[in-house]
From TrEMBL:
Highest taxon, organism lineage: Eukaryota
Tyrosine-protein kinase ephrin type A/B receptor-like domain mapped to chain residues: 487-528, 560-600
Membrane-spanning segments: 709-730, 742-761, 808-830, 842-866, 887-907, 943-963, 969-989, 1001-1020, 1032-1056
Official protein name in the record: TtrS protein
Originating organism: Symbiodinium necroappetens
Filamin repeats: from-to residues: 355-459
Length: 1057
């Protein structure tokens, strides 16, 4: 085991041989046959023994060890835990100290101090202090007048105490050990730059470093490494076993620990330039000269000049190792040489206006001379060869000068001169100024640009004696006026012929000026005869005197030669690149939203069009990838994406193409992606609610809840109560009924008929808003719209067949309940005859005749879809005459027609025809009493009006079916039938009471007025116009209902109260 003996071999042997030699041999010899020997080494021997493999383990200071670990691939085995002043310490630092009475207080004061350290390899007594001072801007190797290496830290303490050194560097606990040995006292000293640290027992001036390590060389086996490590870590100063405590006491340490991290020291060594990262090598203790790094502006003296001559024996001393270079090191100057001028040059003016500087600085104007004038450039070396050799400065081997940026390098002549009794050299070059303008003079020394280079020289044409020449001519060197050549011009007098500048031209000789290039032309060369036309794709941007034509920006074009300006690509065209002569047309019929488009990706289908797909069934293959007009039922906002589904339409996305179907309203099929339905809806045209869903507001379907079966139960109860009221009414003898009661019942019947007509009109193509939306929901009852019963919450799916069946069976169910009421009343002993039951059913059938007829014809009420098919207006998901579902509905439709309009009209027509014969027969009154529901409402002389009334209502029911796809025609026909019926009513005045006749006329008039207003709005093709009048129509529709109920309330108030 080699160990760094910084205090001498004897001290090392006494301190660490008990551990490294005696203890390890005793512990591992008998069990493993290992024998250990401790070898004291100095700093240089450290590296020699490790590099040669002369030891198996090395114990050294952390910095030297880290260098060896990197260079020779050592592996750390353990780290020392020192014992100082009763403390077990795994780290130490450096101390910068001076005598208590010295004037040195701060780090900066060290610039005038004689400093003493142990050596350049000393970590706690040199390197830590050097790194700390360097971070404060002080280089201890060059910035102090004297740096002494004592090679022993105890000597450093003694020298500072005796005044042989101003400042000393030692590790943190060294002064305390000297004090403990009565060699000195702390009162003699003062720490400079002390770092306050209550957790560390010693004064310090630097950062910490880990304690000394022991490491194994690569050839040592892992088993031996582990044995040594475990044995060292077993040592304990406080162990009761002398075998384990005595080595620690002898070495003045507490114990050993697992290896600490030492590679952070590489950064410190690299900062003080002791470690070379590229070669992975550190300076050795003897490399004192190599450790000297002079700052900028200084050079390191020769090896025999840096060490002090008066250094004491056993010490090494550095005295001002860096020499400052003479400032400036080189001086460049120019001087004039004799010039023989010829021609009409004005020599006097040349001499007066020539300026040369005595010293030229970098990037400065060194002189102002004239073309043809001779100069002498001189570079003065202010140090000289002899002085450079003395201070180890680089020698000047060559000086070259270049008089233009791209000119040749010219060698100089060297001459020895003497300045201030010092021998030196100057390097000169004879030179004749050429050309005109600003010239850059460059100087190279030893093949490298000089710090003072480049400099600037202003060269002008020599002034000529004044000779007055006419415009277009110039004086030559002999004073004769000569004509300016084409491509040049002169203003006359003594002005020379100057070449036309770029951007101008002159095709003629003997001209006074050059002409600026016209718009659309350019000229980039001087002395030009003509300007060139801008090529296609380029323009002069509307300017004259262009040197070059500018390329058209992307999104622009210039199709012709000589374009003054580039024009923006028109809509539908684009240009991606600069300099385009023509814009490219967007393919596929696409367009652009603006001019000057630069990206073909901005070619899109314009609003009102969409990008067709050749795979779509309703798109011809030739139009694939083309923009085509928007189809009915679609919304085309523009762009290359798919179209949207228009509100009120549903587009089938299952197949190819855009197959659009009309929906019930815009709420169930909102505008959005193709095939989109309102929440909770599904199926073609969003016809059905999802399973276990019920109708909600604004076209949505909501999940069923427990209370959703309540409407069906309430309807059942209302039906029973209504049956009881009707039985009571029909059971009353007509002769005993008060006219007030009759008037109220007749008015109520007229209102119910009006409500049925309004229910039929709710399907008109109008945008209902405001309170009309609630009126529409209320009228669903009078149209037998079973959706309000929440059938989807009774059965899982309320399809079209089930819905239509329930509408047809609504009255049979009512009749059955009526029979049940009759049976119950009869059981209670009340006298209700069969004629009463027949009259009650007849009254109900006549009252609801229009709704029953309309509902029977619903499968025939088909409207056209944009895709060419027809679907039911009330069930838009059912395709008319093409689907099995519609044929089932048609079968039920025929049954419904036979059940209701045919049967009712047949019975009413037969009874009306037979009425006179019934009256004249013996049983006439009995028969007529059975048909009270038909005749009792009218005057006896107008018994036939019941059939006329039914025929009018039949026509009103047929109109929405016959012209389902033509709402405007519906309005006209409805108004016409109502007017005709009203004329008949006014002419016959059929109702039993005057009030009933008046109310019938008023109701018909009100509905006709509404239809007259709605007709023009329905005929408008502008959706905006319809939207504008939507509120007015909705309020008008609401007022119809309000007028009807107001009339009923007035009638009740007048005739019953």
């Amino acid at each position: 085991i080699g160990g760094l003996a910084i205090q001498g071999a004897a001290v090392f042997e006494s301190s660490f041989s008990p551990t490294f030699q005696d203890f390890l041999t005793r512990r591992l010899n008998e069990s493993h046959g290992l024998e250990f020997e401790s070898v004291p080494l100095d700093f240089n021997q450290n590296f020699e023994f490790v590099s040669s493999g002369g030891v198996d383990f090395i114990f050294s200071n952390p910095a030297a060890y880290t260098c060896m670990a990197v260079e020779f691939n050592l592996q750390t085995v353990a780290s020392l835990i020192n014992y100082r002043k009763g403390n077990a310490l795994g780290k130490f630092a450096g101390v910068i100290f001076t005598r208590q009475d010295s004037p040195f207080q701060t780090f900066d004061d060290l610039r005038t101090a004689n400093v003493e350290a142990v050596s350049i390899s000393g970590l706690g007594a040199m390197q830590l202090q050097q790194a700390e001072l360097l971070s404060q801007g002080l280089n201890i190797m060059t910035d102090v007048p004297r740096l002494t290496f004592a090679f022993n830290q105890n000597k450093i303490v003694q020298d500072v105490e005796l005044g042989l050194a101003d400042v000393g560097f030692v590790r943190t606990d060294l002064i305390d050990r000297n004090v403990a040995n009565n060699l000195t006292k702390w009162e003699y000293f003062r720490v400079i730059g002390q770092i306050p640290d209550s957790d560390f027992p010693f004064a310090r001036s630097t950062a910490f470093t880990p304690e000394w390590p022991i490491g194994a060389l690569p050839h040592v086996t892992d088993e031996v490494k582990e044995l040594v490590a475990s044995s060292l870590m077993a040592l304990d100063r406080f162990s009761p076993d002398p075998e384990l405590s005595e080595p620690a006491i002898a070495g003045n340490f507490a114990s050993w620990s697992t290896p600490m991290n030492y590679f952070g020291l590489l950064d410190m060594l690299q900062s003080i330039e002791y470690y070379d990262q590229s070669s992975k090598k550190c300076l050795r203790s003897s490399d004192e000269y190599e450790a000297i790094k002079c700052p900028a502006g200084f050079v390191k003296k020769a090896r025999d000049k840096v060490f002090c001559e008066d250094c004491r024996t056993g010490y090494s001393c550095l005295c001002s190792p860096c020499a400052k270079l003479r400032d400036p090191e080189y001086v460049l100057k120019a001087s004039l040489s004799s010039t023989a001028w010829m021609g009409n040059v004005d020599v006097g003016q040349v001499n007066n206006e020539t300026i040369v500087a005595s010293s030229c600085e970098r990037m400065s104007v060194c002189g102002q001379v004239f073309t043809g004038q001779k100069l002498r450039w001189v570079l003065l070396d202010q140090i000289g060869t002899a002085s450079r050799l003395a201070i180890n400065a680089p020698l000047v081997t060559s000086v070259s000068i270049r008089t233009s940026v791209d000119g040749p390098w010219l060698s100089t002549d060297v001459r020895n001169i003497t300045i201030e009794d010092a021998d030196t050299q100057e390097y000169s070059l004879e030179y004749e100024a050429q050309g005109s303008g600003t010239q850059v003079i460059q100087v190279d020394i030893n093949g490298q640009p000089a710090a003072l280079s480049p400099v600037v020289l202003e060269v002008r044409p020599p002034p000529l004696r004044q000779i007055d020449c006419p415009p277009g001519r110039q004086p030559d060197f002999d004073g004769v006026c000569t004509a300016c050549a084409p491509g040049t011009a002169s203003a006359g007098g003594g002005a020379p012929c100057r070449p036309c500048d770029p951007g101008t031209s002159q095709p003629l000789a003997e001209q006074s000026n050059c002409e600026a290039c016209a718009v659309g032309t350019f000229q980039e060369s001087p002395a030009s005869l003509h300007c060139e036309l801008c090529p296609p794709g380029y323009s002069s941007r509307g300017k004259i005197g262009s040197l070059v034509c500018s390329a058209c920006d992307p999104g622009q074009e210039a199709p012709n030669n000589g374009s003054e300006r580039c024009s923006l690509c028109p809509r539908g065209f684009y240009s991606e690149e600069e300099g385009s002569s023509h814009c490219v047309q967007c393919n596929g019929g696409k367009g652009t939203t603006e001019q000057g488009v630069t990206d073909p990706g901005l070619c899109i289908c314009l609003p009102g069009e969409f990008l067709a797909d050749a795979s779509e069934s309703n798109v011809p293959s030739a139009l694939g990838g083309q923009c085509v007009p928007c189809l009915e039922g679609l919304v085309c906002p523009g762009g290359n994406g798919p179209p949207l589904q228009k509100a009120g339409y549903w587009v089938d996305t299952a197949g190819h193409g855009h197959s659009a179907y009309r929906c019930r309203d815009k709420w169930q099929c909102p505008e959005g992606p193709l095939g989109w339905c309102s929440d909770g809806r599904e199926g073609r045209a969003c016809n059905n609610c999802k399973e276990w869903h019920r109708q909600g507001t604004q076209g949505r379907c909501k999940p069923c809840e427990g209370v959703d079966v309540l409407p069906a139960m309430l309807l059942l109860l209302a039906t029973v109560l209504t049956g009881g009221v009707l039985l009571s009414f029909v059971h009353t003898n007509a002769a005993r009924q008060r006219l007030g009661q009759v008037t109220v019942f007749l008015t109520a019947g007229q209102i119910i008929l009006m409500l049925q007509l309004m229910a039929a009109m709710r399907n008109l193509d109008l945008q209902w808003t405001g309170p009309a939306l609630y009126v529409i929901e209320f009228l669903d009852i009078f149209a037998f719209d079973v959706d309000f019963l929440n059938i989807g919450c009774v059965v899982s799916n309320d399809g079209a067949v089930l819905t239509f069946a329930m509408q047809l069976l609504a009255y049979p169910v009512f009749a059955a309940l009526l029979m049940l009421v009759w049976v119950c009343i009869s059981r209670l002993g009340l006298e209700v005859t069969w004629n009463d039951v027949v009259n009650m059913n007849g009254l109900a059938l006549l009252t609801l005749y229009m709704t029953l007829t309309i509902n029977s014809l619903l499968p025939l009420q088909c409207i056209a879809n944009p895709n060419g098919t027809f679907s039911m207006q009330t069930q838009p998901g059912v395709i008319c005459f093409q689907s099995d579902e519609h044929w089932a509905l048609m079968f039920m439709c025929v049954l419904g027609i036979l059940m209701y309009p045919v049967a009712i009209l047949t019975v009413a027509l037969r009874a009306t025809i037979m009425y006179p014969s019934y009256i004249s027969s013996g049983k006439g009154l009995l028969i007529v009493n059975r048909y009270r529901f038909l005749f009792e409402r009218f005057r006896a002389s107008r018994y036939f009006y019941g059939v006329s009334y039914l025929l009018r209502n039949t026509l009103l029911a047929l109109i929405p079916v016959a012209v389902a796809s033509f709402p405007t025609v519906q309005v006209v026909l409805l108004a016409a039938v109502l007017l005709a019926g009203m004329l008949v009513q006014i002419r016959t005045w059929p109702w039993r009471t005057q009030v009933a006749n008046v109310t019938d006329m008023l109701f018909s008039t009100a509905v006709v007025l509404f239809l007259v207003v709605a007709g023009p709005i329905l005929s408008s093709e502008s959706a905006q116009d319809r939207q504008a009048y939507a509120g007015f129509l909705s309020w008008s529709f609401t007022m119809l209902l309000a007028f009807a109920f107001l009339t009923l309330f007035v009638t009740i108030a007048l005739f019953l109260w």
